[in-house]
Amino acid sequence: MSEAETNQSQESEGGNMLKIKCKPPPVIKESEFRYQCEWDTCDQIETDMSAFIKHVGTHVVKYHQQTLHADLGTGICYTCGWRACGTQIIGSEIDFNRHIYFHVFHVRIKYVGTHLSNTLRLNTCQIGTQSRNWIPELPENLECSWQDCGIIYDNPYLFYCHVSLHAQVYSEGRDVPCKCLWADCDAVVRSRHRLKEHLRSHTQEKVIACPTCGSLFCSRTKLVDHFLRQTHSDCLMETEKGSS
Questions:
Q1: Model's pTM, two decimal places?
Q2: Which residues constitute the domain of residue 68?
């Protein structure tokens, strides 16, 4: 199934199909993004990703300056100040920073999810908001393994942007063989666009998230499926109630 057209279907017990077919929504312009901080009681909104990163960075700096951390021997214990998270990170200051800046990235892809949901008029996620700011456990280092690179980031968004830029060594267009130069990878794809998609399999980058429950997905199709599965389950429950 291509990203050029979303075509989702779920089969009920009676054999009926629930299907949504639609063209993808227009790409969000950078000027359309809204980034809301959820550090402690802060609600500041930024319209520029660089400004948002800088803003959250001020919270991180103050946290390190004003908070006493317990040394557990295996690392320092840090507590995330992002609302609805509260994760304790045991490790270094870099480990803590990496966690906080993933929240920054998470805000961005949740906004992408909001845009998609509104455009396709999808039903609201029924899972709830308790997990909206839960984020996955991150690798120890965000290290670029592209040939002769090795740069390390503590900011996932900047890391993903950096890795994507490596694809620029190839020309734009279709049927342009692009070899992945990531360590221990021999993949060859047919375009620069496909190479960027492939690189996400190495970085584990997600491109969209549910704005309600916070679940992360590797494609818009997966998020639509996330909503459709819930809608289909609700339909089955109503059918069962009506037949009982």
A1: 0.84
A2: 31-227
